[in-house]
Amino acid sequence: MNSIPKPAPGSETSGREDFAVGDKDAVVIVDHGSRRQESNLLLNDFVEMFRAKTSYRIVEPAHMELAEPTIKDAFGKCVQQGASRVIVSPYFLSPGRHWKQDIPALAAEASKEHSNIPYIVTAPLGLHELMVDIMNDRIKYCLRHVAGDVDECTICAGTGKCRLYS
């Protein structure tokens, strides 16, 4: 059995001030983007939750493709709000081609108009023990729904997808 990766030494608190979260740090949370508007709107809801639960003041959504705002749009909006550093964080589970190539290329292109603003593209969500809790919570809720104990969640509402198939 593979072990869950541990954070890199010093990744939680490096002791260096330039790695601490600052008032002028901005986060661009990037998903793939979808032709389905309901899916794109979920990113906005996540961005609001992220902003409310973290110390980041500037947080913007972006879609890698198929929808707006783009990474370039979000990067610019962060700078307009006074960002002195932009953290591009992929809302992806795995480190595939989009994380390795596409998002870094789009972030680099976006930064060209703001050459004095440093940026980083973080790792995707990947393996994290809290993901187990999230999946388990989702499973339990869906099972409670098919048992008739709770309403459909906002993800499944009106789709008819959350049901027991036989």
Automatic annotation (TrEMBL):
This is Sirohydrochlorin ferrochelatase. Keywords: Lyase, Metal-binding. GO terms for molecular function: lyase activity; metal ion binding. It holds the Pfam family CbiX. InterPro entries: CbiX-like (IPR002762), Sirohydro_Cobaltochel/CbiX (IPR050963). CDD domains: CbiX_SirB_N. It comes from Miscanthus lutarioriparius.
